[in-house]
Amino acid sequence: MAYYILKIAITTLLIVLISEIAKRSSFVGAVLASIPLVSVLAMLWLYIDTKDIFKVSALSSSIFLLVLPSLALFVTLPLLLKQGINFYLSMSISIGITVLSYWLMISTLNHFGVKL
Q: What pLDDT does 29 receive?
């Protein structure tokens, strides 16, 4: 149980730290947020938990294939905000478009026989 609390604490601390840094410098916050910390932590925790390099490799490959649809959020959100749309509505629409993008990517990959 202590191990799970440690994992949660480290992961949470990183997210809070990045958001606090972003308050002072959007550039530094963006650099830190653009580093795939969540992915790296997930792969690290997976390896520590399983010692299975094949699972880590499969996770890494799946993450790579799903990076493209995740970018939809970062394209649509600033466009909607610049149009003067309310933040929460812009975020909701952007998340919806991102979910749709994930669905399209997964459907396309499945069509070509790529299983995640």
A: 87
Q: Which pTM does this prediction carry? A: 0.76
> How many Cβ atoms sit within 10 Å of the Cβ of residue 82?
9
Provide φ and ψ at 52, rounded to 5°: -105, 105
Helix pair angle (37-50, 2-24), 10° resolution: 170
Q: Please report which confidence band the pLDDT of residue 63 belongs to, taking 50, 70 and 90 as the band edges.
A: very high
Q: Provide the pLDDT for residue 5.
A: 93
The b/e string for 84-99 (b: 16+ C-beta within 10 A; e otherwise) is ebeeeebbebbeebbe
Q: What is the pLDDT of residues 88-100, one digit of tens each?
A: 999 999 999 999 9
Residue with tokens 């699972």, as numbered in its chain: 55
**What residue spans define the domains of the chain?**
1-35, 51-116
Cα Dmax for the chain? 49
**Alpha carbons 6 and 19: distance in angstroms, whole number:** 20
